Amino acid sequence: MNDIKINEDELKRFDDYRSENLVLLVGTNPLPNYVACHLLSKPSSHIFFVCTKATNKIADNLINVLKIGEDKWTKIQVDESNSNNIYSKISNQLEGKQLIGLNYTGGTKAMAVHTYRAVEAVAPDSVFSYLDARSLELVIDKKDCLSKRVHTNTSVKPKLEELFKLHGYSVNYKEHIFMPEMCKILGNNLFQDFSEWCEKKLRSDSSKLRSNQELKNVILPVNSPFEDLVIFWDGCSTLGQLTEKWKKENKWRKKVNDLAKWLEGKWLEDYTLLSFQKISDECDIHDSILGAQFNNNKFELDVAVLKGYELFVTSCTTTNKKGLIKQKLFEAYVRGQQLGGDEAKIGVVCFASEESSDASPEIILKEIEKEWHLENKFQVFGAEHIPDLSTHLKEWLNSK
Questions:
Q1: Considering just the CA atoms, what is the radius of gyration of the chain in Å?
Q2: 5-9, 186-190, 197-201: lowest mean pLDDT where?
Q3: Is residue 370 exposed (0-12), middle (13-18) or buried (19+ Cβ within 10 Å)?
Q4: Average per-residue pLDDT in the chain?
Q5: Judging by DSSP bridges, how do beta strands 378-381 and 345-349 pair with one another?
Q6: Dist CA 291 CA 269 (whole Å)
Q7: How many angstroms separate the CA atoms of 290 and 302, rounded?
């Protein structure tokens, strides 16, 4: 298995619950299996992956990402709709084995119930557990007494690359934050004025950018309130000149319309990651990604960070329209759940204002939680949050 991503002090807290034979139920979200394997197995442990035809590939991904030796794992493929099939296959594989552990966080309810029955019949003193996504605790089932809860906190720290590989995704992403100093200036109360300038100068109407030739001839802003941006224009007077100059300096590799898109809103993604990085040490953020595009652009994540195995996905948009902000949140929620499971939290950084009577960040958040019947899952950061975004992100990361 790969290096255990927990320190020695953290490791000791889980010693009493480790098993020589660990049974894991594989569902569509492999993250709980990844975490359980790190918390509950020993270097000598044999891992039994109970999967279905639909999750067989996910079991393979787990084996590869965890780098489990060929003699240290067994896949048990069951028919999730057949209780006798589940019970008999588990019983046959575990017959005669001792020191068994079952973590039943993944899989279907039927798989959990009948695997539990089979393990208990083979070895009644087995360690039964599940991961509580709300509290980030490992819950140990104990007969005839209260369950024991052990905080996992940031004990297990997967890399985002591992998270993507668990799902079999290929990912392209931005390797660096673009123009961080310019992002800071835009984020410091200049963003709304600059957004209005972009809408007037870079778009022929609200639905599309101007043509490439028109964009090349756009005069860059130099007068108040944009005088602090002049240093970034490098003596260029037009957007076309700036694009070519930044290409020669290896600052920019794309076309003028791509730079226009960055200026009118993509910069907010860079600024958001910059704000996360500012608080990464005090908030235990150990990995992050920017502008991730999955499987040939089938979907993307604007910004994502990991705190332990808790995934925070943040969508970014310069709109202040409630409907569009909700749409961005929903898209991020679907991807966040897919990648990070029930532990994932979803945010949006937008231009919604607290002054709006029907589209303030607070109103949008309340409507989402009511419509989707989910609490403590989302956060909406609006115009008033942007200048001090890192402080508000810190509160979000540390909230329960």
A1: 25
A2: 5-9
A3: exposed
A4: 93
A5: parallel
A6: 8
A7: 6
Q: How far is CA 77 from CA 69, 120, 161, 216, in A?
A: 19, 19, 27, 59
CA dihedral (197, 201, 207, 210) positive or negative: negative
If pLDDT is split at 50, 70 and 90, which confidence band does 297 have?
Answer: low
8 Å CB contact between 122 and 97: yes
What the block records as the tokens of 15 is: 């010693």
Contact 85, 78 (CB under 8 A): yes
| Sequence-distant (≥ 6) Cβ neighbours of residue 354 within 8 angstroms | 360, 361, 362, 382, 383, 384
Bridge partners of 101, per DSSP, are 22, 127
Tokens matching residue 22: 């660990």
What does each C-alpha distance from 52 to 5, 37, 86, 157, 375 come to in angstroms? 28, 19, 10, 27, 31
pLDDT greater than 60 at residue 5: no
Q: At what angle do helices 31-40 and 56-66 cross, to 10 degrees?
A: 40
332: phi > 0 → left, psi -120 to 50 → alpha, else beta; which?
A: alpha
What is the Cα–Cα distance from 7 to 153, expressed in whole angstroms?
Answer: 12
DSSP-derived secondary structure letter, 275: H
Top-confidence residue, 10 or 75: 75
Going by pLDDT thresholds of 50, 70 and 90, the confidence category of residue 296 is: low
Residue 242, both tokens: 């700036």
